[in-house]
Predict the 3D structure of the following.
Amino acid sequence: MSLDLDIGVEVGTFELAVDLHVDPGETLAVLGPNGSGKSTLLRSIAGLIAVDRGRISVDGTVLDDAERSVFVPPDERSVGVVFQDYLLFDHLTALDNVAFGVRARGGSRQLARHTAHLWLGRVGLSDFEDVSPRQLSGGQAQRVALARALAVEPRLLLLDEPLAALDATTRRQVRRELRAHLQAFGGMRLLVTHDAVDAYALADRLAIVDHGRIVQTGTIAEITAHPRSAYVADLVGTNLIMGTVGPDGLATTTGVTVAVVADFVGPAFATIRPQSITLSLHPADTSARNQFTGVVDDIDRTGGRVRVGIDGPLRLTAEVTTAALETLGLRPGDTVWAACKATDIEVSPA
Amino acid sequence: MSTSDRNIERPSAGRRSPTSERLPWPALVLALLAIAFFALPFVGLLWRAPWGTVGDVLSSSSVRTALWLSIRTSLASTALAALFGIPLAWLLARVAFPGRSLVRALTTLSMVLPPVVAGVALFASLGRNGLVGRYLDDWFGLRLPFTTTGVIVAQTFVAMPFLVLTVEAALRQLNPGIEDAARTLGASRWYVFSRVTLPTIRPALAAGAVLAWARALGEFGATITFAGNFPGETQTMPLATYLALETDPDEAIILALALIAVSFTVLVGLRERWLGGLRP
């Protein structure tokens, strides 16, 4: 019982060739830059384009199989999609947008309206039933789009850059709400995004794509700790710290307090780019408000850069140049001090 | 709030914003002349109108017959233009097939053709001895020339392109993602077309239908050539007006005013309700 696919799709000169699966109750984030084939992947799963090679199956039912010429049209797939720009129907009210799927699948008008009423309530938009999509804010439109997709109870929910169309302020709030909605939805979730923070906030597992290929898959912890290429390191090779923001800063579960700049309190996750961490052999006299000590346990050279793993109360990865590493003369087992400015730490509510 | 703040928020009436920029005066003069050119004929009609006999002429049975025939046939033509024109527009907008631009040119040719030529062409093809017309008569007993049905055929022939072009343009501008979204929600192709595509392009559809209707209502050349001029059968308002001009110019003017009134009422009535969406 899962989504399984191993497909090849050609779009002009671009070729997408991916192999992945999503388990029930799991959110997989496909992370990659624009133009890496994420939307093509989504469109194939939704049935909006046919694959050229391979097959897609959901819960053992084949949706698309190029070799055996099986193709289930989009309206017969149990796949819901939340599109990047939501694509709400402007000629219908918010309620009728959400009711659309039930009606299209032959449900009575009464059932459709009842279901839509229920779903708009679930996404907190009961007061907006008669409002035209054009009058909704970005965050509200996204919730209507989510309710519309979920109202037909799909087995699989696809989200295309769900937060990309929002401004920075609403984005954080919508991200948190979306996470709650995704967890409440029991089926499989697959989202594509170019934003690593969105992926950390929403997904259980990551698949990193580049030029139409999956270059690494794994849990967020696995990938952030051990990016297998400089490309993945740049994209996600970051320090991820979970904790709670309080008056003194971000308190981690291991009892470390990290100085951060946050305008909220409560559960949060923080990211520190390895490039923002400076290393020294002794406690440094620095303006950086964070300084942690630890033991070097990993030195990983990629190109002219070196990723240094530091094990201590806070597990950190720092990225320095080969020259800097040689000046410090670092070796595994050495004790080192890692410093980081509070302003270099990005904090998001969890 | 200080006075200076208020000035910043609301430009004073004297300040010109880019949108209210005045035209250079030669262009303005030409534009005003253009307006006068359109207004003058109406003023002339109103000035020449024999107001004393308006009631008598309009209540005469021959005028009412012509007006009623015009309304019936123009509405029927508009309905036919929509029935066939919308699928045609969809085909031209969405399906890339070889010779598409040729087909587009062919189906909109009657827009630029002199209507009399259109009438002759219809006669040669659908007339009693025409290419197809002879079989219509032999097999179905259907005679188009010199019948009310022929009037509708002639009007549809010249009016449909207006609807096709308007609807095709709207379909091209429509975000196909909207239709994709509907498909993923479980809508069949037909359901998407009727419940999403058509409602979304409704303003263009209404505009196209009004243009086609207006063209059908005013149709003269193709009608008189193909369908003739029989009162009650094929004599529509434009034909009646033209003929009246020969015998009784005053009656022609009243008929012309009646046609203008009908067109104007429909245009103004539809504008707010249906065409509102066309404006930005």
About this structure: Residues 61-94 of chain B form the longest helix (34 residues). Residues 128 and 138 of chain B are 9 Å apart (CA to CA). DSSP finds 15 helices and no strands in chain B.
